[in-house]
Design brief:
Layout: H1 3-8, E1 14-18, H2 26-39, E2 48-51, E3 55-58, E4 73-77, H3 78-85, E5 90-91, E6 95-98, E7 107-113, E8 130-138, H4 142-147, E9 155-162, E10 179-181, H5 184-193, E11 200-203, H6 210-218, E12 224-229, H7 232-245, E13 250-254, E14 279-285, H8 304-324, E15 325-335, H9 344-353, E16 358-360, H10 378-381, E17 385-387, H11 399-402, E18 407-413
Parallel strand pairs: 4-7, 11-12, 11-14, 12-13, 14-15
Antiparallel strand pairs: 1-3, 1-10, 2-3, 4-6, 5-9, 7-8, 8-9, 15-18, 16-18, 17-18
Helix pairs in contact: 5-6, 6-7
The structure holds S-adenosylmethionine.
The site of S-adenosylmethionine has 18 residues, from helix 6 and strand 12.
Length: about 425
């Protein structure tokens, strides 16, 4: 399948990270699915299983499970529509329009605004490009949503069934910090870094802290993790996430990681920049063009210059990462995009530019090999992981692990 067709589709599976620092109530998940199966007249609940201790994978309902649409249209923004397809409820700030006769308790059909042109509070049917993403029960009145004079909060529509037929399982089922909606490749990425007790770890592009908290959790709060992001508000998000997850081994900093190595640094404890050879492990989850996100509903316009700008930053970040890594240390490079320039070609550039860098297996493998003919030999292609629609004999991947977002992971030692 062509990548451009693949990215607009919703994955057939959804994944969550279970916080192993907190108890996980699996009975609650089973009960929720049983209750939904009664509501939807389904014969079986969807399959679900755990990969390792901390990754929950859920499948779709059977093909014949459905709900009748109501004919009453509610328009939500594109990001919310993508979340509904992944089993989320609709939160009030994302609602753009609903017809004046809508009342709380009514069944409504949820549409995503693909053009981003729907005006908040619109009373007439929206005639822009929109996509049906699910049906649910309206929990708030029009007055509460638009006319109350305060920013509305909370669940506005309780989703009954997304158009993707994924179950309605989401973070609201558990207390904050217990369960996190996270794509499988992102979960795998932290497994590849494999944070352990007493290791000094640098997360160079850390916000909002999804992988940082995973690293803290897997080390049982016993690693020393420094998490950097260049945007101050985003650093606050890292802090909040660590607090909610009970992760206490992370020190966040606001800094530009393209400048985070300096010979003049006094040491790790003084904050960035850091001296060369400081870290046992480094995660470079690079800013990227994000073209692997699925489902991509809004229209993404990106100029060639903008695409090229990502590789420039990625190379600067990589240069700092290589300097900061201790000899014998592990560096994991990842992106959530599908372009060759930001993935295989970037790895090939790094290996040529830094002769002290060695490509090592990015294990555990759940994605396919790197693409052929774009800078990596077959021996190198099998060491990296590419999550995408491609099927490659070098490493065949079960659909359950392939049908997620587009992503790339490479691991190096120095
Ligand atoms: C792909 S996101 C990281 C996601 C994060 N690792 C997680 O799993 O939650 C990339 C992040 O890099 C940050 N960023 C971009 N350029 C940066 C730079 N020069 N230094 C530090 N952070 C940067 C962005 O603000 C963004 O939050």
């Amino acid at each position: 399948m062509d990548v451009s067709d693949w990215v607009i589709q919703c994955p057939k599976y959804t994944t969550f990270r279970i916080n192993i620092l907190k108890p996980f109530n699996s009975k609650k998940l089973q009960e929720t699915l049983v209750n939904q199966s009664i509501e939807l007249n389904a014969k079986h609940i969807p399959d679900y299983n755990c990969l390792k201790q901390d990754c929950l994978i859920l499948s779709q309902w059977d093909e014949d499970v459905g709900v009748e649409t109501s004919g009453i249209e509610v328009v939500v923004d594109a990001a919310c529509a993508a979340a509904v397809l992944r089993g989320a409820h609709v939160f009030a700030p994302a609602v753009m329009s609903l017809t004046p006769n809508c009342k709380a308790g009514m069944k409504v059909d949820i549409y995503g605004d693909l053009e981003g042109k729907c005006k908040r509070g619109l009373k007439v049917p929206y005639d822009g490009e929109k996509l049906y993403v699910g049906t649910g029960i309206l929990k708030m009145s029009r007055f509460e949503l638009f006319d109350n004079g305060v920013q509305p909060k909370g669940i506005a529509i309780h989703t009954l069934l997304p158009a993707s037929k994924l179950p309605v399982v989401n973070e609201t089922m558990y207390p904050k910090g217990y369960l996190l909606l996270q794509n499988l490749p992102s979960i795998v990425c932290s497994w590849v870094l494999n944070a352990q007790a007493d290791e000094y770890i640098l997360d160079m592009c850390a916000a909002p802290g999804n992988k940082t908290t995973h690293l803290g959790e897997m080390s049982k709060n016993k690693a020393f993790i420094i998490a950097i992001d260049k945007t101050p508000q985003k650093v606050l998000k890292i802090q909040e996430k660590c607090e909610a997850h009970g992760v206490t081994c992370v020190t966040p900093y606001c800094f530009d990681s393209t400048k985070c190595c300096s010979e003049d640094s006094s040491g790790i404890n003084g904050g960035p920049p850091f001296p060369p050879d400081s870290f046992d492990k480094i995660l470079l989850d690079a800013p990227c063009s994000g073209l692997g996100q699925r489902p991509q509903l809004g229209k993404k316009v990106m100029s060639l210059n903008m695409l090229k700008s990502y590789t420039i930053v990625q190379k600067k970040l990589m240069t700092n990462a290589v300097k900061l890594l201790k000899p014998g240390g592990r560096l994991v490079y990842s992106t959530c995009t599908t372009t060759v320039d930001e993935n295989e070609a970037l790895v090939s550039w790094a290996l040529e530019k830094f002769p002290n860098l060695k490509l090592i297996p990015a294990e555990p493998f759940h994605g396919g090999p790197g693409l052929p003919g774009v800078g990596l030999s077959d021996e190198q292609r099998v060491l990296v992981q590419r999550f995408g629609p491609e099927i490659d004999e070098l490493r065949l991947v079960e659909e359950k692990y392939r049908d997620h977002i587009g992503f790339f992971i490479a691991a190096f030692s120095k």
